Amino acid sequence: MSSSEPKARPKPGPWPPAPESSPMPPSSWAKRTGFRPKFSGETNAGDSGQISMRPRPREPDNQPDLEAGRARAQPQPVAPRPEPAANGQAQGDKPPLPAPPAADKDQPAKRRRDSDGAVPKSSSPGANRRASAGPAPAEAPRRPNRSEEAVDMLPQTVDDDGFGSRHSHMKYELRDNPGLVPITFYGFQHFLSMLGSLVLVPLVIVPAMGGDHEDIAAVVSTVLLVSGVTTLLQSCFGSRLPLIQGPSFVYLAPALAIINSPEFQGLNGNKFKHIMRELQGAIIVASAFQAILGYSGLMSILLRLINPVVVSPTIAAVGLSFYSYGFPLVGKCLEIGIVQILLVIIFSLYLRKISILGHRIFLIYAVPLGLAISWAAAFLLTEAGAYNYKGCDVNIPASNIISEHCRKHISRMKYCRVDTSLALKSSPWLRIPYPLQWGAPVFHGKMAIVMCVVSIISSVDSVGSYHASSLLVASRPPTPGVLSRGIGLEGLTSVLAGLWGTGTGSSTLTENVHTIAVTKMGSRRAVEVGAGVLIVLSVIGKVGGFIASIPTVMVAALLCYMWAMLAALGLSNLRYSEAGSSRNIIIVGLSLFFALSIPAYFQQYGISPNSNSSVPSYFQPYIVASHGPFRSKYGGVNYVMNTLLSMHMVIAFFVAVILDNTVPGSKQERGVYVWSDREAARREPAVAKDYELPFRVSKFFRWVKWVGL
């Protein structure tokens, strides 16, 4: 070291350095790995609650690139000059560290797996893979810095040279095309694993609208067709990520609120078609608003307010908001509903690592397998006469039953038997859904405003899905323009959902990220082929009839799992932020608490405990428009305010977005989403191939800078 340097390097101490003091003796795992806990006597808490480490000399480590999700290469000198002697020994001739115990000779990084047990991770790219990197100076075990911890949360591995190979755990990446047969198989598998998200929404809203089994089958076929078409459009002209589009749970709460509006309570005859036309009108207006939000570039401005701390409680609140519907219906037939919930839990958790022919069947198909087994068990019980009661007929309305014996058992006969639905028998073999099949849409301003606000929540949901999926399958995250283009196209495809009459808008399903991570399939072509298969199935009427015949108890049991998964996937967005920050913990906690408490106040206001209502108990939270506390001389304003403030996701979004954008915090602490720069993305061929529009369409729209590369 020359004397001309302004600051002298601190004199090194004894080697290896003495471990820092800790209030608790380290465990055996801590001794093996060199882990030092954050909350030790040597650390200090900053203003935001983060643990600030004492400054230490900068080490020549490979610092990760947070935007690309991989380690940034450092220049390697050909012949490094030895450092001056320290304690009588040259820096380049450091003695090796003490050998670890015999049981720990294998690399710990190769044994560490993710939650699915498939992908090895490394929280310290430079320290945990020395054995495979060839001869290199040994280093003392050290705690990884925060940036490394943030990268380790991403689904990535680090190769032997220290460079990030983020997609090494994926079977096929975004632009891979392994052949027609594998693509067809993986595409069908992708959609089958998301069966619950695609078909369960119609099974909830159609009976609430007064529809019969034929209406349910027709709406299911329509959903399959619209989901296939919108997925193809999104894959080709939207975000270009392998994301399935479908009836999102985000639209379920406002749909139920509109269905249970006071003006629809006294309808008799064709109630289903009348309410469906009202929903179509509200969805079309909200979809047009979402398309303008995306294609006008306003979404790029809104992105500045949307961060992981906002997305996490908002999406979690969507799943938690339906607790009143899940288990209360499962309780109608416990021996069937409980068994199905347990089967799905066993398959997805206890048997998730079992692989058959290279595929983790139980984890990928947990929902279809649980449904099939419980359905078969219910069928055997029905055929064995377990639910036959002498002199009782399930087809007789409960109001006409005179016998007290039959009144007591009619509920079990209705919910436990699997032969009460005639949907499969009455469905035609060929039925092509067509636009305006329920009649011309009806437009009401108050319902359209409610749906417009919900379309913003749907866009927030899609932002989280775009970011998480791009880190799994693409070379870089999309640019703000590509994201705006995807949101704009979601608006246009939701217009198609409104015209065809699916009952809800079309959006990117949150479960996409989980499905991609589990199946290891990120090919855009696979999703497109699967969408084509979905379109073919939609015109086969018996498919819709078969799905419509799923018993109500089984639907509720599946929804218990799906909504729990949705809440967990929402909270998983916190991995892109400092999850241990007291700032973020308080914001997320307040958002979730008020998301549950404020709607409860609105939903319970003005309801007498002994009041008799024709609306089932599990739909009581959605009749708030008739008795909410917001009362002015304008009926439309009362409807909008009472309805919006009774929705959990709306409260969670507004509380989180206000607190996250007003409470001070660094970008790293807040976990601000890192999107690719437009000019830098255009210079990288891999990014251009990932996100550019096909058929050279993008060259005609290069002037629209806010919706493309």
Can you give keywords for this protein?
single chain; 709 residues; mainly alpha; two-stranded antiparallel ribbon; two-stranded antiparallel sheet; 49% helix; globular; disordered N terminus; transmembrane transporter activity; Nucleobase-ascorbate transporter 12 isoform X2; transmembrane helix
Structure description:
This protein has 709 residues and is mainly alpha-helical. The chain has 28 helices and 6 strands. A two-stranded antiparallel sheet has the order 1-2. A two-stranded antiparallel ribbon has the order 3-4. A hairpin with a 5-residue loop joins strand 1 and strand 2. Helix 23 runs antiparallel to helix 25. The protein starts with 27 loop residues before the first helix and ends in an 18-residue tail after the last helix. The N terminus is likely disordered.
- Portion in beta strands: under 5%
Shape: globular
Task: Tell me the distance between the termini.
Answer: 47 Å
Structural class of the helices, strands and pairings? mainly alpha
Instruction: Report low-confidence residues grouped into runs of 5 or more.
Output: 1-7, 25-73, 77-141, 143-166
Main sheet specs:
2 strands, antiparallel
SS elements, strand count: 6
Biggest sheet: strand arrangement: 1-2
If helices are DSSP runs of H or I spanning 4 or more residues, what is the number of helices?
28
Average pLDDT for all residues: 77
Helical fraction equals 40-55%
For the CA atoms, what is the radius of gyration?
28 Å
Brief write-up:
This protein is 49% helix and 2% strand. With 709 residues, it is mostly helical. The strands form three sheets. A two-stranded antiparallel sheet has the order 1-2.
